[in-house]
Amino acid sequence: MKLKHGLGLVLILIIATAVYSTIITEKQYERIDVAGSTSVQPVAEALAQEYMKAHPRVKITVQGGGSGLGIRSVSQDIVAIGTSSMELNDNEGGKLKEYVIGKEGIVVAVNLKNPVDVISKDDLRAIFTGNISNWKELGGPDAPINVVVREDGSGTRKTFDDLVLKKTDKVKSDAIVQISTESIKLVVEQDPNAIGYISLAHMSPNVKAVKVDGVYPSMETILGGTYELHRPFLFLTKGEAKGAVKEFLEWCLSPDGQKIVENEKIVPVAS
User: Fold this and answer.
1) Which of 77, 121, 184, 260 is most buried, by the most CB atoms less than 10 A from its CB?
2) In a domain, 7, yes or no
């Protein structure tokens, strides 16, 4: 009788251990940390959320902080994937592997009350360097132009400076500096005399996009190459991606992943 009770106890212990092991195993997951560009952040979050639905054993966290932070963080092994909305320099490119997940437009935005609808790239350069300082020089009201820009290290700023200021001209010293696309948009919304730049994905009806050299910013004009103010959205890894990180990146570039990219108003690379 004691033998039967002993065997029963052993069996219960075996079953309990197996169940406990199963529970512990099910709680385990692959963690992927992503950080960097605030412009890339919304599409990175959308990709992560959709991927985790189909891969419950993978947990992906996404944070902003700017392209510079993304490049530094992945270079220093702080995160598995860094995100950037600016091209890497030669030194960075030698250490990091780039995955272009899409192309994104930069919109020149003004207040809804501003009557100016079209600005040439040359005039943009003059505005942001301070050579044009009054809206009446562009057919607008007799009012000062308040320039709003992103902070140093921002991928959006670097791209705008490269494309509009030709990498050599400097932004006027009294320009208003903001630390995110949303904060630029808020300043432009509240100031009838303001002009700034924001990512196409963040464009909303509370500010007005102007045509640049006669071309309106849209996914179609970016894809067709007629709208020139655009930049790549990059996922970055230190060396070749492996394991869960590689699988996630491959999915981001698959038709399913690229559909998510397109839904976020980013031109998919498959196009």
Assistant:
1) 184
2) no
Range of the domain at 36: 12-16+25-104+231-268
The answer on 198 and 91 residing in a single domain is no
| pLDDT tens digits for range 151-191 | 987 888 888 999 999 877 899 999 999 988 899 999 999 99
DSSP the chain: -HHHHHHHHHHHHHHHHHHHHHHHHHH--EEEEEEE-TTTHHHHHHHHHHHHHH-TTEEEEEEEE-HHHHHHHHHTTSSSEEEESS---HHHHTTEEEEEEEEEEEEEEE-TT----EE-HHHHHHHHHTS--BGGGGTS-S-B-EEEEEPTT-HHHHHHHHHHSTTTS---TTPEEESSHHHHHHHHHH-TTEEEEEEGGG--TTSEEPEETTB---HHHHHHT----EEEEEEEEESS--HHHHHHHHHHTSHHHHHHHHHTT-EETT-
* pTM (predicted TM-score): 0.71
